[in-house]
Amino acid sequence: MHGPALPGWLMVALCAVTGVYCLLRMRACTGEERRAARGEAVMGFGMATMALPTAVLTPPEWSWAVYAAVFGGATLHGLAAVRRGGHHRHHLIGSLAMVYMAVSMAAPGAGAHSGHTVGAAGGIPVLTGGLLLYYMAYVLHAGARLVPVALPAATGALATATAAAGTGPGGGPALGPAWAARPELALACRLSMALAMLAMLVTL
C-alpha cells in the first residue's frame, strides 16, 4: 500500500512518531493502560511499514500474509481483552481493519502496493464504507475531546502538582517520563492513528 513519495513519507512519519510515543507511554503506565500502549505501538509501526514509498521498499507478495497474520493475532488478543473494557474495543476494530486491508491488497488484481494514500485495491465497498464511517465518527469524537476547556483553579493546581511529582495514572510513581502518561497525549496518539487509518481505507 505504498504511494507517492511525499504522502508516503508523511504517513510514515506520523505513524512512526505515534509508535515511538506509545513505547514511551508503556514505560510510564501500568496495567490496562500499558497493555493499550503496547497494542497501539504495534499498530503505529505496522502502519508506518505499510506506508513506505515504493522507491524505498517494494515488499514481496507474501508480505501481506505476514501483515494479516500479525494483526490476526492482535485481533484474537483483542477478542480476549475486550470484556475488560477500556480502549480494547477500538483496538479490536483497528486490528480487524488492518487484516482487512492486508487481505484486500493480497487479493488477485489488487495490485502490488498501490498506496495507503493513492491507489486502488480490492476491498468490499460495504465493509470499507462501514469502517470509514466508524473512523470518521471516532476522529470527530476524539477531536472534540481535545478541545481545551476551562478547569476550576483547584483542579488545575492538583493536575500541576501531580505532574510535578511524577506520579503515574494509577497513583503510583511514574516508570518513565511524566509527560508520556498525560491522557490528552494518549488521545492525540489515537486520533493520529485514526486519521492515518482513514487515509488508508479511502483507497480501498
Description:
The termini are close together. Mean pLDDT is 78; it is low at 111-120 and 154-174. With 204 residues, this protein is mostly helical. The protein is built from seven helices and no strands. It is globular and about 45 Å long.
Give a quick summary of the entry.
The chain has helices spanning about 5-30, 30-50, 65-80, 90-105, 125-145, 155-165, 185-200.
Mean pLDDT: 78
The total count of helices amounts to: 7
Helix fraction by DSSP (H/I, runs of at least 4): 55-70%
The low-pLDDT segments are 111-120, 154-174
Number of strands: 0
Q: Outline, from the CA principal axes?
A: globular
Q: Biggest sheet: strands, sense, closure?
A: none
What separation lies between the terminal Cα atoms? Answer: 10 Å
Derived structural class? mainly alpha
Order of helices and strands: HHHHHHH
Please report which band the strand proportion falls in: under 5%, 5-15%, 15-25%, 25-35%, 35-45% or over 45%: under 5%
Overall radius of gyration: 18 Å
